[in-house]
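Design a sequence for this backbone.
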């Protein structure tokens, strides 16, 4: 289907395009909310105890595949803004699920160790130094995971190349890295000031902001690490 046909399906008017955009982000919001329900339920059921830290982190397992699908869909919507926004979401989820989980599971395992060290550093010798170091490492890991998300969502590299490209983009696309860190801070602030449920309700807005942040990363990876026709 051509771009002209898609434009005709939506209509050329401002109201038609606005209505299509509202519908698109309504679908995205429902998709991300449904994907985040298991995480929210686990967090609500668990007590804030040291033994449950691993379960709190493991509950984030659906987050990366859902965000990968959201990023994939955003690019598809820009190219073909039709009235079936759910199709690229599920296509992105299906295509990227395996590659995303390949790095997301190890990242969650490392994040568990770092989170335990941050939360309970006072229980070991040298905790005063251990806590800030692990907090910085956790922030670095989160930003690197953001770049891993971008690379695995839009490119078909070998696993070790995904890790290397994401590490390179951590520094090459430093503005995006800083933006991811700020976005993470905002998300933590929403949870602290409101609740996890509120973060889930506005997750579509965070996905949109993430897409705006990583578009230059996608362009840079395409330019530096792929063969141009």
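Sequence:
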């Amino acid at each position: 289907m051509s771009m002209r046909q898609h434009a005709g399906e939506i209509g050329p008017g401002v109201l038609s395009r606005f209505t299509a955009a509202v519908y698109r982000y309504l679908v995205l919001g429902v998709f991300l909310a449904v994907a985040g329900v298991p995480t929210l339920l686990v967090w609500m059921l668990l007590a804030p105890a040291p033994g449950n830290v691993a379960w709190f982190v493991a509950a984030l397992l659906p987050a990366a595949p859902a965000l990968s699908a959201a990023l994939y869909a955003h690019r598809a919507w820009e190219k073909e803004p039709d009235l079936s926004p759910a199709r690229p979401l599920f296509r992105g989820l299906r295509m990227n699920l395996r590659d995303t989980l390949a790095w997301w599971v190890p990242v969650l395992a490392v994040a568990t160790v770092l989170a335990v060290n941050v939360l309970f550093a006072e229980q070991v010798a040298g905790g005063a130094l251990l806590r800030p170091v692990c907090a910085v490492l956790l922030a670095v890991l989160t930003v690197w995971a953001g770049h891993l998300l971008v690379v695995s969502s839009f490119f078909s590299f070998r696993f070790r190349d995904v890790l290397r490209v994401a590490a390179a983009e951590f520094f090459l696309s430093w503005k995006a890295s800083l933006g991811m860190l700020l976005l993470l801070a905002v998300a933590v602030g929403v949870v602290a000031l409101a609740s996890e449920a509120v973060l889930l309700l506005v997750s579509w807005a965070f996905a949109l902001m993430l897409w705006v942040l990583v578009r230059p990363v996608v362009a840079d990876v395409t330019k530096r690490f792929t063969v141009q026709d």
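The CA atoms of residues 74 and 157 lie 21 Å apart.
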